[in-house]
Amino acid sequence: MEANRKRQQYQTNNYYIDGNTARKRAYFGQEAMRDYSALPERRKELPTPRRPVPAPERQIHRQPRHLSGISKASLFILTIAIAATLYFCIELLMLQHQVSKMEKDIVSMEQSLNAERNKNNAAYEQINMVYDLDYVYSIAVNDLGMVYPNNNEVITFEATDDSYVRQYADIPQ
């Protein structure tokens, strides 16, 4: 309850804070004359005199005649240098594009080579599974009666310069 009373008293007081001192509020009316004396007088600041700023003088700087511009020879050399630089930049970009294209082609060729190797290995394994050499030997020896030749049954002949031999007649018994 006492807190409410203090709050009401705080809200209804006629003081305000200006800086670090508390003064009474000024009212307009007859009371204002009486309470106006409590307020400090305002200082009126005098305007500071302004000095006229002198305009900067324009100074004309003339360059010597030989330095007044770029010569035609210098302009021609500069143009050639710019054109050469542009040409080399374009060539560099084209070469980089070709290199990246070749790298992509190499990668795709390596992938196709690996795929073909895998196919080849799979086919080789399939052929080895179909033709078992032990099975062929057992059929040849057991069912067909084949045997290894003796030393006297082997006929030798001299090879010619050709890489193959033509047989025109049967070999004699």
Oligomer: single chain
Report strand %.
under 5%
SSE pattern: HEEHHH
Radius of gyration: 58 Å
Q: State mean pLDDT (0 to 100 scale).
A: 77
Unreliable spans: none
Order of the strands making up the biggest sheet: 1-2
**End-to-end separation:** 145 Å
Helix content: 40-55%
How many DSSP-defined strands? 2
What is the overall number of helices? Answer: 4
Overall structural class, as computed from helix and strand content, comes to: mainly alpha
Largest sheet: 2 strands, antiparallel
The 3D shape can be described as elongated
What does this structure look like?
The protein has 173 residues and is mostly helical. The protein has a domain at 72-150. It is built from four helices and two strands. It has a two-stranded antiparallel ribbon with strand order 1-2.
